[in-house]
Design goal:
The complex is a heterodimer of chains A (468) and B (413). With 468 residues, chain A is α+β, with helices and mostly antiparallel strands. In chain A, 38% of the residues lie in helices and 18% in strands. Chain A has 18 helices and 19 strands. Chain A starts with a helix and ends in a 6-residue tail after the last helix. Chain B is built from 15 helices and three strands. In chain B, a hairpin with a 2-residue loop joins β2 and β3. In chain B, α3 packs antiparallel against α4, α8 packs antiparallel against α9 and α14 runs antiparallel to α15. The chains are: A alpha+beta (468), B mainly alpha (413). Chains A and B meet through α1 and α2 of A and α9, α12, α13 and α14 of B.
């Protein structure tokens, strides 16, 4: 019997551990995924109860009214068709064509599901139809409209503007836009897929903008990386592929800073093979690749570092931002923001404040560090190289007089497309204008020609924020 | 007598809030749509709780605390079912009454164990025959072929065989006939596998392992058993397409959230809708989950009563288990110890398997939430298990009384 007692103790421990795991896992998954489950399109309960509540209004950071409902609950957006079109992806639409806009992902606030029992009861006694919470979001409507006007007509793409110190998003643009109160009948046939939020949901190879990640891998793995030189003869044979540079340029003997400036594919191909696939993957993962993004305010597709067919030619092309790399424009913005912010990556945020009918406010923005991919001095080295890209390299057209602009261009080749996707990532090195920007214009040509000038326009727009 | 005096206030304290809870809950349902039946139940259910928890044990010695907790879970089940579908709630009350009868039989079986242990071979054969029946002329439901119809009533033999399984294993292991026990348990497992009733098979396996381990104390058995389970899981995964499908749904139910993943997705959404405090009794919509009354009743509870109440439900299972184990430790023969331990573990493991499936901790297997889920056989067998446990408890109390008598006689002489 004594033996049984010891055995039983082990069993009690095991069974209670199992029951405890139910509590632990349940609490964890509800805390982490609860809002995602709640705002899912499959949630019949939320859909049904939305009818009982007048959804709250949405304001931008400067107090511009973006969405409101009348007493019957009918939803309408800003009176200016151009403005409401410009913000359609970040806000969403009442028919939920745009997945995970503020309208759907923040439904728990807008429809007052988070209101306390007391608040609900007091509203019930007032006899009025319940009102959801009003939201103030971090988006700058004026800036977003200006970006939309500057974006090449008839092109698909995305633009993201983020405060790299707090993670607040000022613009989260996807193109083409459409008017949520006047949706064209044939919109589903549009090959540019206007419903799709390309800033957060479109995964693609980022082209040479990814070289900042390759450079980070070099800094972490090659001690004398910045003093070493590489030979660029205009063509570099790896396996059965020939790595070349745009316009078959030959850069001669160059160091890494110069290689970033002129965006030398050959040097970065050599660099990728030098540090190896694992080191490059680690650098990418330090920046959040392969992560399961679970941001409180946004649903973002997960970036992928390729795992199959890792032969030398694929590794070489990965170093130059091609191969099977998959990232979203928002994630490239976050990577750039981390470089600008001394190596600290902030979680992207969009909700500034939620206030309910009783006047209680909550959900005020609290900046949260998401990752720290770089040490401050490593970030400085990369930022320094990116500064040279704008002053004398491929992103000269992003320069704005009077502002310290840094950046990196990319021209990503995509199978079945006539032109490359034009990319630009960059940031302002100004203490009172801590903004990172990402521009992607699909099927438009080189990043230096088709994306950098647009970025320049955005940077000069951002200058106006100084007087806020 | 000392013992009961010390415990009585605790049970009284426990029963009153439970009665109040049930009274207000049914009253609320009654006020919601002015159904006279709900008002009647607002009186009858608390009254029933009082009678079954405090008055019934006067007829025979039993562990009132354990009884109270089991009754509470049954009442929560009846309440939830009645709110979702009054007819099922009423059926559940009838089944509960029948289950109480079976519980009494269980108590009597253990009380008269000395005379009845000769029936063990019969019980073993009956268990195997019962479980073989669905394999040959069973009906398929949700992928499992675990049901048979007898005299127009359809039921799940594996539910009834649970009781036999526990008694036979405890008997064999108390006599150190480990090989025999393994053969018997193996036969039961094979029959369950043939019925594709994976959840029940998992629980039977776990119980067998627990009992063999506590009887022999062999860590090798525990290690080999766990490894065997892992190997079995891998083998099952590679051999059976329905296992693969279950696992795929578990890994990501959202891929096919309208099809195969629908139940899990809706279960998770129901949880999220409930939040900490629940949507409120009668205000949820967990009936969008097709199996809301059986496999997913825990999600319904989380939906309407909230996560905190769900936590309490899990805590009650943990307390039932702990109480069961303490009964096992107080009993004086190896058979009674093993039986009580098996019963307590059975309830706890079954609760774990189905709640884990509901919250997506483990792949979903169709077992019921013991004492709560809708289903005659399930409720009756769960109450039967509680009966066996109560039987051991009552034997313990008898033993204590005898001790006191002997002590008393000793003092007098």
């Amino acid at each position: 019997m004594k033996l049984i007692k010891r055995n039983v103790r082990i069993i009690v421990f095991a069974v209670l551990l199992l029951l405890g795991s139910l509590v632990g896992y349940g609490a964890y998954s509800l805390a982490v995924y609860g809002n995602r489950w709640f705002s899912s399109a499959s949630n019949v309960y939320a859909r049904r109860h939305k009818a009982d509540v007048i959804p709250g209004r949405i304001y931008d950071r400067n107090g511009t009214l973006l969405a409101s409902s009348d007493e019957s609950g009918k939803r309408s957006y800003n009176n200016d068709p151009a403005l409401r079109s410009a913000l359609v992806h970040v806000i969403g639409d009442s028919a939920n064509n745009v997945a995970y806009g503020v309208e759907s992902f923040m439904a728990q606030y807008l429809y007052g599901f988070t209101d306390s029992f007391v608040d609900r009861l007091s509203q019930a006694f007032q006899g009025t139809r319940r009102r959801g919470n009003d939201l103030r979001i971090s988006i700058d409507a004026g800036l977003s409209l200006a970006i939309t006007k500057a974006f090449p007509a008839g092109k698909a793409g995305a633009v993201v503007v983020m405060n790299y110190k707090t993670g607040e998003l000022l613009s989260l643009q996807s193109f083409p836009v459409f008017d949520p109160m006047n949706i064209p009948k044939d919109i589903e046939e549009d090959p540019l897929k206007p419903f799709w939020n390309k800033a957060t949901r479109w995964l693609s190879a980022p082209g040479s903008t990814f070289k900042v990640v390759t450079l980070a891998a070099a800094l972490k793995n090659i001690p004398d990386a910045m003093t070493k030189t590489y030979e660029c003869t205009g063509a570099y044979q790896v396996g059965d592929t020939l790595v070349t540079d745009a316009g078959m340029a030959s850069h001669g003997t160059i160091n890494l800073k110069k290689a970033v400036e002129v965006s030398c594919n050959i040097t970065f191909a050599k660099l990728a093979l030098e540090v190896g696939d694992e080191a490059l993957r680690k650098a990418g993962q330090a920046f959040g690749m392969d992560d399961h993004f679970l941001f409180t305010d946004l649903v973002v597709e997960n970036s992928v570092y390729p795992t199959t067919n890792r032969v030398n030619k694929e590794i070489a092309w990965t170093g130059a931002g091609q191969s099977a790399l998959l990232l979203t424009p928002l994630h490239m913005t976050m990577i750039t923001a981390a470089i600008a912010n001394d190596g600290v990556m902030m979680e992207p945020k969009i909700l500034l404040q939620a206030s309910n009918a009783a006047g209680n406010t909550r959900g005020s923005i609290t900046p949260r560090v998401y990752k720290t991919p770089l040490k401050a001095h490593e970030a400085d080295v990369i930022a320094d190289a990116m500064r040279a890209v704008v002053t004398s390299g491929t992103a000269r057209r992003a320069a704005v007089s009077g502002l310290k602009v840094s950046g990196k261009t990319g021209s990503a080749q995509v199978a079945g497309q006539a032109e490359t996707n034009a990319w630009f990532v960059g940031f302002l090195d100004e203490p009172d204008l801590p903004y990172a920007v990402c521009v992607v214009v699909e099927d438009a040509g080189g990043g230096g020609q088709a994306a950098a000038p647009l970025a320049g326009t955005i940077f000069s727009q951002l200058r106006h924020l100084r007087h806020d | 007598m000392m013992d009961t005096d010390r415990h009585r206030p605790a049970e009284r304290r426990l029963v009153k809030p439970m009665m109040l809870f049930m009274f207000s809950a049914f009253l609320l349902l009654g006020l919601k749509d002015f159904n006279w039946l709900s008002f009647v139940l607002a009186i009858l259910v608390p009254l029933g709780l009082h009678i079954t928890t405090l008055l019934l044990p006067r007829l025979f010695p039993a562990d009132t605390l354990l009884l109270g907790m089991a009754n509470f879970l049954c009442a929560v089940g009846i309440l939830t079912l009645y709110r979702m579908d009054p007819e099922r709630g009423m059926n559940q009350i009838v089944m509960y009454a029948l289950g109480l009868g079976v519980m009494l039989l269980g108590i009597l079986y253990i009380r008269f164990w000395q005379r009845l242990k000769a029936t063990v071979p019969l019980v073993a054969v009956a268990a195997v025959v019962l479980m073989a029946m669905p394999v040959f002329f069973g009906r398929e439901r949700n992928g499992a072929k675990a049901w048979i119809a007898l005299f127009g009533v359809s039921f799940q033999p594996s539910e009834i065989a649970k009781l036999a399984h526990l008694v036979v294993l405890a008997f064999l292991l108390s006599r150190r006939r480990v090989m025999m026990a393994m053969i018997f348990a193996g036969a039961c497992l094979v029959l369950l596998m043939l019925q594709k009733d994976l959840g029940t098979a998992l629980i039977y396996y776990g119980i067998t392992l627990i009992l063999i381990f506590s009887a022999t104390g062999s860590l090798t058995v525990l290690g080999l058993g766990t490894a065997g389970a892992a190997a079995g899981a891998v083998l099952g995964y590679s051999m059976f397409s329905h296992v693969k499908r279950r696992v795929a749904i578990w890994v990501d139910p959202w891929v096919d959230h309208r099809g195969s993943g629908y139940q899990i997705v809706q279960s998770l959404i129901a949880m999220a809708n409930g939040g900490l405090w629940g949507t409120g009794l009668g205000l949820g919509n967990a009936n969008v989950i097709p199996e809301y009354s059986t496999d997913f009743i825990f999600s319904v509870i989380l939906n309407e009563f909230g996560v905190l109440f769900g936590l309490c439900v899990i805590a009650v299972y943990a307390l039932i288990f702990i109480r069961g184990v303490s009964i096992a430790m107080r009993s004086r023969t190896k058979f009674h110890t093993l039986l009580a331990l098996g019963c307590a573990s059975f309830i706890a493991l079954q609760a774990f398997v189905i709640i884990g499936g509901n919250i997506k901790l483990i792949p979903l297997t169709g077992v019921t939430l013991p004492l709560v889920s809708y289903g005659g056989t399930s409720l009756i067998s769960s109450l039967g298990i509680m009966g066996l446990l109560q039987g051991v408890a009552s034997v313990n109390q008898e033993d204590i009384k005898e001790d006191q008598m002997i002590a008393l006689i000793g003092e007098e002489s």
